[in-house]
């Protein structure tokens, strides 16, 4: 199958998702302040994307679901480690998180998109794929790892948000 045929055969929603994810990854390069809720978007997108694929892929069975969960747990640990080693601040009054610029989200987005795209092409051009073939399990594992990494980072932001001591309103009283 030619590259042109692969590009033409890719659903439009995949390209829209790529543009959205790239915009989020590029924005993360600059760092900045964002509401905590807005930082939940990418973890939710990756979790929903992975779970939806498991639910709709006819070749996915319990092994794929187990691989996704295992990947998500491993990714969660990695995401917690990454976030804890990053200096960021939270503002409880404004309900925002200020993050330094980082290439990590963009790299994760690119690696995930490329691997899921490649696996999707392989699954699409293969003859009927047996349930839980290596491709389907690998796709689930990668999806779980990335969803877990983004979720782990977000979890640390939430924990810091809740754990930060309240600032006294007026020290003079």
From TrEMBL:
InterPro entries: DUF6622 (IPR046730)
UniProt KW keywords: Membrane, Transmembrane, Transmembrane helix
Pfam family, one: DUF6622
Keyword Transmembrane included in the entry's annotation: yes
Transmembrane stretches, start-end: 36-56, 62-83, 103-121, 133-156
Top-rank lineage group of the source organism: Bacteria
Name by which UniProt lists this protein: DUF1453 domain-containing protein
Protein source organism: Paraburkholderia edwinii
Taxonomic path: Bacteria, Pseudomonadati, Pseudomonadota, Betaproteobacteria, Burkholderiales
């Amino acid at each position: 199958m030619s590259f042109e045929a692969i590009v033409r055969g890719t659903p439009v929603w995949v390209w829209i998702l790529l543009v959205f994810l790239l915009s989020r990854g590029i924005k993360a390069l600059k760092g900045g302040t964002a509401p905590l809720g807005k930082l939940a978007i990418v973890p939710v997108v990756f979790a929903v994307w992975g779970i939806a694929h498991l639910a709709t892929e006819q070749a996915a069975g319990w092994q794929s679901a187990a691989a996704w969960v295992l990947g998500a747990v491993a990714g969660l640990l990695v995401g917690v480690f990454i976030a804890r080693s990053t200096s960021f601040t939270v503002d409880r009054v404004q309900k925002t998180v200020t993050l330094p610029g980082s290439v990590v989200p963009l790299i994760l987005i690119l690696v995930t998109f490329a691997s899921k795209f490649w696996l999707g092409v392989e699954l699409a051009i293969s003859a009927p794929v047996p349930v839980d073939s290596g491709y389907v399990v690998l796709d689930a594992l990668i999806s779980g790892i990335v969803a877990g990494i983004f979720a782990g980072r977000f979890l640390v932001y939430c924990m810091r948000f809740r754990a930060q001591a309240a600032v006294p309103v007026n020290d003079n009283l």
